[in-house]
Amino acid sequence: MMRKTLLLAASVLLACAAFVAPASAASQAPAPRFSPESPIPREYIDYKGPYGKGTIIVNTAERRLYLVLGDGKAIRYGIGVGRPGFTWSGTHTVTRKAEWPGWTPPPRMRTRQPDLPYHMPGGPDNPLGARALYIGSTIYRIHGTAEPWTIGQSVSSGCIRMANNDVVDLYERVGVGTRVVVQH
To answer: CA 49 → CA 36, 55, 72, 113, distances in Å?
Structure first.
């Protein structure tokens, strides 16, 4: 009788553990889901250009973004750029930074694509990805993407796309006020 009671108690404990583990796992916040790495790997390179430490240089022709580190070094990231007719250039600063930003398509974009939502909350499936750096008073951003296969292509409406893991790296290295130079 004692053996039956012990076996019953053990099976009840195992059954409870099976129900408790998923419940406690479900109560934890899910880990952020990042897109796979960029098809263009991030690299530390030698830099001998005219821009100083902390400057972001976007070279749309190369489809590369450079963060000048100083002492003759920079980090080079792969990017996606504006498709034909949506490229631009200029010098601005980062005026705002956001983690998992919400997205409100500009009116001109909604005119071209009327099926777009008026607003999309931030999250892994949001077109702005994990982080966004807002550029000056423009409508453009340097932001992540849930579509890393677009890195190295000209597909956006003018924004600079990075793989989520790369935009998180850049986001942690720069602050509001960082100079952004966009070149063709």
So the answer is: 31, 11, 8, 40
Domain-embedded: residue 112: yes
In a domain, 60, yes or no: yes
Q: Tens digits of per-residue pLDDT, 14-53?
A: 333 333 333 333 333 334 445 467 889 999 999 999 999 9
> Could you tell me the pTM of the whole model?
0.79
Type of residue numbered 112: R
Helix, strand or coil, per DSSP, at residue 4: helix
Q: What is the pLDDT of residues 57-94, one digit of tens each?
A: 999 999 999 999 999 999 999 999 999 999 999 999 99
Which residues lie below 8 Å from residue 142, measured CB to CB, with a gap of 6+? 56, 58, 65, 79, 132, 133, 135, 159, 160, 162, 167, 170, 180
Instruction: Give residues with Cβ within 8 angstroms of 150, minimum separation 6.
Output: 80, 156, 161
Which domain covers residue 152, as residue numbers?
Answer: 43-183
Residues classed as catalytic: 143, 159
- CATH number of 137's domain: 2.40.440.10
